[in-house]
Amino acid sequence: MDSGKWTKKPVASARSEVLNPIRTTLEKDFKIPETHDKNLINFTLGEPTKANGYPLPDETKEAIIEAVESEKYNGYTHSSGHLDARQAVVDKYSTEEAPFDKDDVVLTFGCSGAQYTVFSAMCEPGDNVLVPRPGFPLCLPITQNLGVELRYYDLDPEDEFSIKLDTVESQIDDKTKFILVVNPSNPCGSVFSKEHMEDIIALAEKHQVPLVADEIYYGFSYDDSKPFHSFAHVNTEIPLITFGAISKTYCVPGWRLGWAIVYNRGGYFDNILANMQKLAMIWLHPSSLVQQALVKILRDVPESYFEKTKAKLKEASDKACEVLTGIRGVKPVRSKGAMYMMVLIEHDEFEDIEDDVDFCKKLLNEQNAFVLPSTCFFAKNMFRIVLCHPLEKIEELGLRINEFCENHYKK
Ligand SMILES: *Cc1c(COP(=O)(O)O)cnc(C)c1O
């Protein structure tokens, strides 16, 4: 190409800082071996698909086909989402004790879009937000883009990844806009007890810093000792924003539909809700076809579908614990919800493994097995596996991790 007079390249330094650790690992930093005597097994993304043993229920497939065939949903909708689609969210999740209506719902591009909308609506440059570590890292590129500071509070792997509340409290100041909580947790596969949620709420109340709850795994606990509770129901007085999506629980992450629900109790979020609606006018609504499908999906997909999915995830969690327990140098933390498991790495056992990134890179190169280092989730010395895979594949992962460890133990 003849560049002619185009000699000065455009730059936008603030944007060049923006980093999504998972996507960067997958698309840039890690290289899948081009040839290998073992086939690739990829445990990086929470993608419950047919190939991974999670076919869609008929209702979901019919919903999108009907939306296409009706030819009624090829135009624009309201910026915050079609009224019918928002009403479907109300019908599914609003309760008598914790009510909200369709004007409190903004439909977005997946749960990611809900996060971006709420962070943007709530925060100005110089503000800070408290987020969990280990935690889902989308908040990093979002806050980098907005000039907002992230402050990490710690989850305790020794105590089922409950929040170390003192690490929240010590970081709150008058620029703290909200505390982000994720329950059930990606990446930890943990579920909060009701008592723990009450403690978190009490802390938020004491400091008058609202909670924003990422509940994309709504209802997805599969351990009787840890039933799922929504923050909206544990306390029906506090102002609260929750995130949801069909991505994970309905097994269609690629369809890109999520939402934010504003529990605007006492009108506390009046200004923020208005901001969210204005921002929705920039990026406009998610696909009108998927919005229309949402109505049928939320109404017609039977409870038995979730029971089946959760039973499979529980089997996967048990299997992963079984195959990884007893391998010297790694220690799985049993998963009780969502679709992930964290595995602790005991670096002292190994000769030549620097850290979790090094562990995962070498595991990929030597065993063609791809798992994500906990550095992607702001934490050290762990890796995350996804559980939505067939049991044979989880067994195979266990074998490869075992062989890998044997090749790297201290002599
Ligand atoms: C997957 C995930 C998201 C992103 O969801 P999308 O609907 O795919 O945008 C957000 N938060 C958590 C905790 C997740 O696991």
Q: What's the CATH architecture name of the largest domain?
A: 3-Layer(aba) Sandwich
The CATH H-level superfamily of the largest domain is Type I PLP-dependent aspartate aminotransferase-like (Major domain)
**CATH topology type of the largest domain:** Aspartate Aminotransferase, domain 2
- What is the makeup of the main sheet? 8 strands, mixed
Looking across the biggest beta sheet, what order are the strands in? 2-9-8-7-6-3-4-5
Computed CA radius of gyration, to the nearest angstrom: 22 Å
What percent of residues adopt helix (DSSP H or I)? 25-40%
Low-confidence stretches: none
Q: What share of residues are in beta strands?
A: 15-25%
Enumerate how many helices there are, as a single number.
Answer: 14
The dominant shape is: globular
Walk me through the structure.
This protein has about 400 residues and is an alpha/beta fold. It folds into two domains: about 20-55 and about 305-405, Aspartate Aminotransferase, domain 1, CATH 3.90.1150.10; about 60-300, 3-Layer(aba) Sandwich (Aspartate Aminotransferase, domain 2), CATH 3.40.640. It has 14 helices and 14 strands. The chain has helices at about 15, 20-30, 60-70, 85-95, 110-120, 140-145, 165-170, 195-205, 230-235, 270-285, 290-300, 305-325, 355-365, 390-405, and strands at about 40, 105-110, 130-135, 150-155, 160-165, 175-180, 210-215, 240-245, 260-265, 330-335, 340-345, 370, 370-375, 380-385. The strands form three sheets. Strands 2-9-8-7-6-3-4-5 form an eight-stranded mixed sheet, sandwiched between helices. A four-stranded antiparallel sheet has the order 10-11-14-13. Strands 1-12 form a two-stranded parallel sheet. The model has no long low-confidence stretch (mean pLDDT about 95). Bound molecules: pyridoxal-5'-phosphate. Pyridoxal-5'-phosphate binds near residues 46, 186, 214 and 253.
